[in-house]
Amino acid sequence: MNSLQGTITNGQIILDVPASLPEGTRVEILPINEAKPALGIREEDWPTTPEGIAALLERMEQVDPGWLSPEDEVAWRAALRAQKEVEKAQFLDDGKKLGSMWE
Q1: Which of the residues 21, 58, 70, 93 could staple to 25 if both were Cys, CB 3.0 to 4.6 A apart?
Q2: Does residue 89 lie within any of the structural domains?
């Protein structure tokens, strides 16, 4: 189910849209800014230099996919390499397409 959103007014929660929950359903209410911890990297923390990007990629390569069997890990890494090659091959064409959008 998607989350419900609303506003506290006079001590009561007024939902933005009516909820389709059965009467008596218990719910948990959390303020939006505290409801979900931030995941991943904040936008302003992404590396922007070639060195920073290379360091991030290196850290990502070190992730241990311990939940995979050895065979699945080999297949997964092969699929990652194949996808990387596809993206590298399409890079210039994609750049030209994006560039033509601004002309």
Answers
A1: 21
A2: no
